[in-house]
What does this fold into?
Amino acid sequence: MKTYLPRIIDKLLSERLEAKGAVLLEGPKWCGKTTSAKEIAGSFISMDQPEMSKQYQSMAELSPLTLLEGKTPRLIDEWQIAPNLWNAVRYEVDQRDEFGQFILTGSAVPAKIDESMHTGTGRISRLYMRPMSLYESKDSNGKVAIRDLFENKEISAESDADLEKIAFLICRGGWPKAVGLAEKQALFQAIDYFDAVVSNDISRVDSVKRDKEKAKRFLKSYARNVGTRAALETIRQDVLANHAGTFDPATLYSYRDALIKIFVIEDSPAWNPILRSKVAIRTTDVRYFVDPSIAAAALQLGPKDLLNDLNTMGLIFENLCIRDLRIYADYLDGSIYQYRDNNNLECDAVIHLRDGSYGLIEIKLGGDSLIEEGAKNLKELASKIDTNKMKEPAFMLVLCAKAPFAYRRKDGVYVVPVTCLKP
It folds into this structure.
């Protein structure tokens, strides 16, 4: 029996249950939602249990409160199969007037949400769960905490990860079932996930039949543009240029929206700081997947392929870092953004906390010249921020794949291998 690896979401879920009647735990399939929820739940019901699913759906229509009976917190797994359970949970939370009653887990946004469904505001709190970060999968030693960077502390850590290891971690992804497996079996998990998405999940989410090959082509084009601000029309033209057939704008949005609903795509929004001088900030989102392994699988790339194409590896490595930073930011009650202006000054990630403090982050594979380039970008952006109207950055960080040590440079910029990071 596989030992449960603690997740960063565990503490957040416990805290929410102490403050709300119910918590909705959303995220992609196979990321570990059900496993983590069961660690906390007093009882559970799986709405997608094959031999019971139809009976459960009928019961949800006829007597939904019956399904909510059980020791609390009661876990309702894949609740979106019977969307009217949402109103039943909201009603029961009101009636019981106690915190920590229910956990709802779902790997898709319900296809049909009508006006009768209450928003759940004040009763049901939402949490988003992603695949494992490197710290959760034990691939980061966690000797450098982002919290310490916010507090301007000195750091010291070593990393023995090389590019070969990073390439493997990109392709393996953060899927819990892949962690601890031999290389061949571990790499297959992301491939299998990708196949499930294009073969079934992209159509099942809203019962709209979508073509498997078109789904593959769309995801491949999205992967080719990962880490960029490519317009959706650019992605559509790329699909058309590489394959025969049609792919009109309506089809593009249909496929894109379905992939968002099943938590495959997770783009990064733009950050809008207050600057000393007027400059046009580009507001286009940067294209990312919820896990870097999806990009590698879409492009049919393995670890060796990435090592032979460091440009592509650098972009997908950026997706790995963004995944981890998002998980860590959630723990710190923050959010991740990106910045680029019309002078092409950019910052790969900005971690912004609720109290207004923020850190600027550049992501690089490694090497002295790339680290120097990243530090230069960070200092230039920091110099343009109007610190009379907003806080100065709490820290500047070059987050890299390959570096023997984590340290702070003389100019104050931190350099940290991603395999040393934790929240």
About this structure: The CA atoms of residues 353 and 382 lie 17 Å apart. Residues 144-422 form one domain. The chain has a mean pLDDT of 94.
